Amino acid sequence: MAATAEQPRTQVRAEARYVRTAPRKAQLVAEQIRGRSVPEARTILAFMTRDAARDVERVLSSAVANAEANHNLDGDELYVSAATVGAGPTLKRWRARARGRVARIKKRTCHITIALALPEGGVIPAPRPAPAPAPEPAAEDEEQQQQEEPKPKRAPRKKVEPKAETATEEKPKTTTRKRTTKPKADAEATAETKPKPKRTTTRKKESDS
What we know:
This protein is an alpha+beta fold. The chain contains five helices and five strands; from the N terminus they run βαααββββαα.
């Protein structure tokens, strides 16, 4: 079989999938920038009040970055050749209503695709080749380098000079607490000075019968 020749690249594209926006809302925004230059499209999206404009603006910035980084192009010289919005899967939720009924909630998603091209159908250069990874050093080379490198010598340890012992060593002082005891004479004197409580006797009166 004959090898088919590769067709020259004329577009640079970017795509955002599963965007949490209804396809109809995003399609109204995409129609406003289709066929316009990149600076003009950015200005239109910046002043639009629709929430979907923020999602479309992110996809446009991604397409411009792909053209500048991969194909060495100037983003301001490109224009929006295609801006399409496709429907994605729908998330189904529910909400409680009166009389035990249920109302269905459909949270729709979409896929946004934007393609950029050069004016007058210019050919986009081929993408830059990826840089070759640096070769890893072999394990044998590492072992040889470790053997060749001399090991650092340790510094000599300092000798500690013994301290001169004193002839008379001071003994630690032991402090003993003295108990304070009162003498017996003082205890007896205090006992005598205290008056003894008087006894109260009640005699019953005898009644003559």
